[in-house]
Amino acid sequence: MKTIASAALLMYAGCVALTLSPSDFSWPIESELTADKNGMVNEDRYHLRFNVKPLLFEELQDSLKVSGKTFRVIRDQEGYYFISGPQFKNVYVFEHSAAGLSQVAKIKVSQQGLVNPAFNKRPPHIQLLSGREKPLYLNRYGIQTPAEQGGSTR
Questions:
Q1: DSSP 8-51
Q2: pLDDT category of residue 109 using cuts at 50, 70 and 90
Q3: What tens digit of pLDDT does each residue of 69-79 get?
Q4: What pTM was computed for the model?
Q5: Which of 40, 74, 99, 109 sits a CA distance of 20 to 30 A from 85?
């Protein structure tokens, strides 16, 4: 009887999911990616490659003039990708999925469009800079004020 109980316990222990925590998926600095003629951007350092045509169409209603367009990408501690670019009015937040990068949020950050956007890692937030405008602090839920530590302006 002890043998059966021991075997059952070992089988149960083998089925329990292992979690490695804490974990930090963030990138230390943003990446500036340039689209090729097919709309693909590639980041060799982080082994990331994706098609920006749907994003460009969503943001600017034009996915034909994609070659040479630049995009800013950074990844936060939780593993979410923040993507934007010049003339964008929004920052898009994506997560990794079996199908590719799946949008989890669209954050309105500018009325006229970003001039020269740049992302910085400012845990627990992502900082967005654009020209002389005041920096914005973002997380996957939206724009945060510096005093908020995880709250949302949804």
A1: HHHHHHHHSPP---S-----SS-EEEE--TTSEEEETTTTEEEE
A2: very high
A3: 999 999 999 99
A4: 0.83
A5: 99
